[in-house]
């Protein structure tokens, strides 16, 4: 080996080691926990409040509960007293879990009451998901309104169709003195809600114009009634 020259490994020979190192990083998700206690302190400072008191109460050897109070200064332009809000967590196994629990409770309260957004690395994704959700909800509401309008329109057409058949069958029954049509007992059970029962009493096939008219009217009713039985011949 020549003096003064450093030893340089072939870059190709480094590839397997680099690949293995990369694989070890991406094989499983790495969860990074951000302390709720730290987030709460930033949030409280941002809204001009102060964590006045906090502590942990040990219930027994394995359970402890954390608590804290947040003090808000008087509102601008007023001389009122400070406002204090108290928070208490649930029983946890360790001091850290207890502090995180009560901090999360306080964070959730302030987010819902003071319209606070936590701008972490996931915030842009959250905003995009919220935008898409809002868009989908808007379309869902529009489709629901359209469905209700179509349902009302369909019910109106159904009622108009039913009323027309009832009126037509009533007319047929009332002109039985000049047409071979007569009221009769219901042909279906339960009775149809569409028509008043009427039957054709003329010749089959019809021999006169009156009989032809009666059969046509009778068939119109039957063809537009569920389970109707029009005269074929």
Q: What distinguishing features does this structure have?
A:
alpha+beta; 233 residues
What does this structure look like?
- The protein has 233 residues and is of the alpha+beta class.
- 49% of the residues lie in helices and 13% in strands.
- The chain has five helices and five strands.
- The protein has a three-stranded antiparallel sheet with strand order 1-2-3, with helices on one face.
- The longest helix is centred in the middle third of the chain and has 52 residues, at 123-174.
- Residues 1-16 have low confidence and may be disordered.
Task: Work out the radius of gyration.
Answer: 41 Å
Secondary-structure element pattern, one letter each: HHEEEHHEEH
Trace the largest sheet across and list its strands: 1-2-3
**Helicity range of the residues?**
40-55%
How would you classify the helix and strand content by structural class?
alpha+beta
Separate helix tally:
5
| Residue windows where pLDDT falls under 50 for at least 5 positions | 1-16
Strand content: 5-15%
Q: Could you say which overall geometry the principal axes of the C-alpha atoms support?
A: rod-shaped
Average of pLDDT: 82
Major sheet: 3 strands, antiparallel
The first-to-last residue Cα distance is 114 Å
User: How many strands appear in the DSSP assignment?
Assistant: 5
């Amino acid at each position: 080996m020549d003096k003064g020259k450093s030893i340089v490994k072939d870059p190709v020979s480094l590839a397997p080691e680099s690949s293995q190192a990369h694989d070890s990083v991406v094989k499983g998700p790495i969860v990074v926990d951000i302390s709720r206690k730290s987030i709460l302190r930033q949030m409280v400072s941002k809204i001009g409040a102060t964590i006045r008191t906090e502590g942990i109460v040990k219930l027994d050897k394995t359970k402890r509960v954390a608590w804290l109070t947040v003090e808000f200064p008087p509102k601008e332009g007023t001389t009122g007293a400070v406002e204090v809000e108290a928070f208490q967590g649930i029983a946890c196994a360790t001091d850290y879990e207890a502090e995180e629990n009560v901090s999360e409770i306080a964070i959730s309260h302030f987010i819902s009451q003071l319209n606070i957004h936590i701008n972490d690395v996931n915030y842009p994704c959250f905003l995009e998901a919220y935008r898409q959700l809002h868009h989908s909800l808007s379309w869902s509401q529009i489709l629901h309104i359209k469905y209700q309008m179509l349902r009302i329109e369909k019910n109106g057409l159904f009622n108009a169709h039913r009323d027309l058949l009832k009126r037509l069958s009533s007319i047929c029954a009332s002109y039985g003195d000049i047409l071979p049509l007569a009221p009769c007992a219901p042909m279906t059970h339960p009775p149809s809600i569409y028509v008043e029962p009427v039957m054709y009493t003329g010749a089959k096939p019809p021999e006169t114009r009156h009989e032809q008219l009666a059969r046509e009217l009778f068939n119109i009713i039957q063809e537009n009634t569920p389970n109707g039985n029009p005269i074929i011949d």
